[in-house]
Amino acid sequence: MLWLLQNTVLCFSAGLRLDLYIEAYGLTYLRIRALIWMGVVAIGLSLTAWQILKAYSNRWLVLRCATLAVGVLYICCFVNFAALIATVNIVNNKTNANYLCDFGPTAARAIQDAAKATGQPDYIWNTRACGFQQHNIDGWRDWGVRKWRTHV
After folding, report:
1. Are 66 and 88 contained in the same domain?
2. Cys-Cys link to 56, which of 1, 60, 100, 135 (CB 3.0-4.6 A)?
């Protein structure tokens, strides 16, 4: 039990340190993945401790951990991480135009919205300079969730 507690505290400590890195250097895909992974590990360790305390079967733990893994993957399918990273970095002034261009058109709308909110109009020009194409939705055949979500 002590080992489980130590590792859970270690996960939270690493998460706090990662938060300091994000504050100092900005948000990246790798940092988001690390935060998600640390959260899954901490919850898994907590479930293991709960299983030991309540004397549940191994089947109980495997089922909960599998549900956790599938749930995290399912939720991550609906998150636009490029837009999230661009928004956080623009608001915190931790990015440059070349880095924003690497996110592609899925972040174009978030870049423009964050730029307007923070009063940085040069980022609006940079989204056009990156070559982001506006998706024209002329009819039902052109419509898609990704095009609708990223429509600038």
Report:
1. no
2. 60
Structure tokens at 119: 């009063």
Is 35 in the same domain as 69? yes
pLDDT digits (tens, 9 = 90+) for 22-68: 999 989 999 999 999 999 999 999 999 999 999 999 999 999 999 99
Q: Which of 59, 77, 95 is the last residue of a domain?
A: 77
Dist. CA 106–CA 92, nearest whole Å: 20
Cβ–Cβ contacts within 10 Å for residue 51, how many?
17
pLDDT of residue 9: 92
Q: Structure pTM?
A: 0.79
Dist. CA 150–CA 103, nearest whole Å: 12
Is residue 70 located within the same domain as residue 95? Answer: no
For residue 141, give both structure tokens: 């055949």
| Residue partners of 21: CB distance under 8 A and separation at least 6 | 31
104 shares its domain with 48: no
Range of the domain at 15: 2-77
Q: Are residues 66 and 121 in the same domain?
A: no
DSSP string, 15-46: HHHHHHHHHHH---HHHHHHHHHHHHHHHHHH
Q: Which two tokens stand for residue 110?
A: 């978030």
